[in-house]
Amino acid sequence: MNLNDLSFDLASLRTAYATGTPVRAVIAEAIRRCASDTNNAFIHRLTEAEIEPYLALLDGVDPASRPLYGVPFALKDNIDLAHIPTTAGCPEFAYTPSESAFLVQQLIAAGAVPLGKTNLDQFATGLNGTRSPYGACRNAINPDFISGGSSSGSAVSAARGWVSFSLGTDTAGSGRVPASFNNLIGLKPTIGLLSATGVVPACRSVDTVSVFAFTAADAQAVLAVAAVPDEADAFSRAAEPFGVDFSVGPFRFGVPRPQDLAFFGNEAAAALFSQSVDRLKAVGGAPVEVDLTPFLEAARLLYEGPWVAERYVAIKDFIDAQPDAVFPPVRTIIEGGRDKTAADAFAASYRLKALRRVCDAVWKEIDCLLTPTAGTIYRIADMQIDPIRLNSNLGYYTNFMNLLDYAAVAVPAGFQADGDAKGLPWGVTLAAPAFKDVPLLRLADRFHRSQPLRLGATSTSLTTTPAIGEPPKGSNTAGTVKVAVCGAHLSGLPLNWQLTQRGARLLGAVSSAPEYKFYALAGGPVQRPGMVRVAEGGGAIDMEVWEMPTEHFGSFVDGIPTPLGIGKVKLADGTWVSGFVCEAVGAEDGTDITHLGNWRAWLTHASSTA
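Below the sequence we write its predicted structure tokens.
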């Protein structure tokens, strides 16, 4: 195998290792690629001697026994790697940790091999990638343009194909904006899923480590390994069931109102967003217009409110002692947190609580939200002339996500066809409430693969990589129950709201096995049928199967009146599913309508004879 041509997506690496390619040969090729960095992507590239201990851990190990065996990765230089300096983009701040960050330890245990610490906007304060004493990080596709920040070098190192994935952090969009600008998947996980032990904080209460990868499948594989609860991290959260998986069926996606969209003069980006709406419709989505006003108000709290004081608290002793060591735009922002008061913090937290209630109401109408990741992109020279205003423009769609505790995935949406940024990638973001990471990744994969794109800045086609599969073992599982209904809970009928208000989703129409008597029960006011399984004389009954989050199943069952209940119903294909059954004694006063086989048919018959 010519390793020069080897794509570093996970599927290609697994194939290479399965066919006998030595891990040291692959890592040597990765080292060679990293050495070609002219984008200012790295702050510290590991030497062969520094990498050797990680390779030694793989000696004699079956590649199939490690989910990330021999996978080269990079990490943002505010995340600790043992015995390698952590600078957070500030040489004067640097320290050398004795052990790696908790999540980095998980990745190494899974077989991943770290290759370098990457450049960033200093102290993770910025969305553009130019605020670094190690040089402005240049876009992976056109070096005249910004790479996005603050996780600039992480995105570029992955996009150029030097590593398989990289770690960033995300407080206001730092794990999403660089993904958009470099043609990558950017996963901003639910806050707390990835441990922050060993990570230099920006805004501790809303920070999360993020993942850059070529595909959603690769990002999911990294998440499955790294999402381990950490007792040492007070903000760590175990994964919770994600509920109904909207990625595998018809779904509703929110789209900002036209007056809420901002592209800052970039007509090519506006056109790509319109195409993205159509593309999401083509994979089964129904658009729902969303008022973005409360989301944007929440976004302004991140920098205009007291949360900026968290940035000051994170490096208080350092910035007070050495203010001149901090980049001017970064210092201006962080020192702005010095004068925030406790009264400011409480007032803003009350306002955020109120805004979150308004914003969260949208999830009753939609499954996910579609926005641009960033409205436009800028040249490095322009960003350096007007660093505060242009940087603020980049966060228009991203600043509210973490404050509102949403999960999000940035996904490529094509290349700009004209204008100053012609030929540069552009992306959109899919967002949903916390713990919806897996359905978001699965939907992002469907959206991504609906386009003829390549991987990052490489020449490898996306079509050469496998689509996302079932969530790896260890990912948060659905946590749902399938329920078969045959009467007033059918779509459009009077009690269907008891399903939809609990977040249930219609899976499809089915028929029972031909083993049931079907009765129109006496009483009301809502008319109901009853199914009784019999040894002979039964028929097949038309039903619908719905999927409901387990957390709401108990309250649903509790509201079912006698003689009905939930038991196991046998379907025509021989499988069994939870569904409505009726006590035989309760059907004695009912009308036998088995010959109709369908509750709607009975309702039509009953109304015509009334």
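The chain has a mean pLDDT of 96.
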